[in-house]
């Protein structure tokens, strides 16, 4: 198995790095929330792609399973579905806080809000 054959993992690594870069380096709170969303999406895609079982079928039993029959594990999809709901809640809360910061300080830049806090 060569490294170029695992191109989907390279895409996930790229998305993870882009998301982390936006969260740690950007000073704009909205851009940080976008970076967090990119990071979460990369993790979701990684977990869903790891679930693939070559030759596996859905875990629906019709009678007695045959010897050596492979089933795909439904747990990663369930976990990712729950994580998507939590991610939407975190994003909406973060954006609501960013709106409140904009109302209070007139800016969503971290440097501006720190400067205004230091002055008061």
Automatic annotation (TrEMBL):
<dbReference type="InterPro" id="IPR039428">
    <property type="entry name" value="NUOK/Mnh_C1-like"/>
</dbReference>
<keyword id="KW-0472">Membrane</keyword>
<dbReference type="Pfam" id="PF00420">
    <property type="entry name" value="Oxidored_q2"/>
</dbReference>
<comment type="similarity">
    <text>Belongs to the CPA3 antiporters (TC 2.A.63) subunit C family.</text>
</comment>
<feature type="transmembrane region" description="Helical">
    <location>
        <begin position="78"/>
        <end position="99"/>
    </location>
</feature>
<keyword id="KW-1003">Cell membrane</keyword>
<feature type="transmembrane region" description="Helical">
    <location>
        <begin position="6"/>
        <end position="24"/>
    </location>
</feature>
<feature type="transmembrane region" description="Helical">
    <location>
        <begin position="33"/>
        <end position="50"/>
    </location>
</feature>
<keyword id="KW-0812">Transmembrane</keyword>
<protein>
    <submittedName>
        <fullName>Na+/H+ antiporter subunit C</fullName>
    </submittedName>
</protein>
<keyword id="KW-1133">Transmembrane helix</keyword>
<dbReference type="InterPro" id="IPR050601">
    <property type="entry name" value="CPA3_antiporter_subunitC"/>
</dbReference>
<dbReference type="GO" id="GO:0005886">
    <property type="term" value="C:plasma membrane"/>
</dbReference>
């Amino acid at each position: 198995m060569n490294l170029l054959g695992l191109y989907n993992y390279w895409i996930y690594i790229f998305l993870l790095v882009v998301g982390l870069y936006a969260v740690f380096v950007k000073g704009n709170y909205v851009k940080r929330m976008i970076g967090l969303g990119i990071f979460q999406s990369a993790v979701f895609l990684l977990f869903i792609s790891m679930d693939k079982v070559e030759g596996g079928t859905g875990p629906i039993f019709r009678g007695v399973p045959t010897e050596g029959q492979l089933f795909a594990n439904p747990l990663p999809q369930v976990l990712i579905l729950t994580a998507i709901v939590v991610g939407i809640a975190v994003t909406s809360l973060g954006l609501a806080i960013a709106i409140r910061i904009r109302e209070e300080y007139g800016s969503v830049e971290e440097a501006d809000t720190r400067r205004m806090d230091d002055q008061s």
